[in-house]
Amino acid sequence: MKGENLQGLVEFIAQSLVEQPAKVSVNTQQRGHVVQLDLHVAKADMGRVIGKGGRVANSIRTLLKVAAAQDGCRANLDIVEPR
Question: Whole-prediction pTM value?
């Protein structure tokens, strides 16, 4: 249940940022109280999700950690580079 809420949050934020929201997907794995989220976006949208110096990515991670703390767990976000 916790992972689904966090997955929805990351998907919403990423879809709001990118030009191709249909290509946004988030894979979730839960290990105890830690939720691992892998964000996949189109190659052309990587810069929008990462931002200059990683500022956007770090902001998403901060929001995710706050939401996870409210759910009583921890969360990690990796942005997976498309092939």
Answer: 0.90
CA distances from 19 to 46, 68, 72, 73 (A): 10, 27, 33, 31
CATH code for position 16: 3.30.300.20
53 sits in which H/E element: none
Structural domain boundaries, residue 18: 2-80
Query: Looking at the 3D structure of the chain, how many domains does it have?
Result: 1
Strands of 1-83 (E only): list them.
Answer: 25-31, 34-40, 74-80
HSE, CB side, 13 Å, CA atoms: give it for residue 60.
26
The answer to whether 7 touches 26, Cβ cutoff 8 Å, is yes
pLDDT tens series, the chain, 83 aa: 567 889 999 999 999 999 999 999 999 999 888 999 999 999 999 999 999 999 999 999 999 999 999 989 999 999 998 87
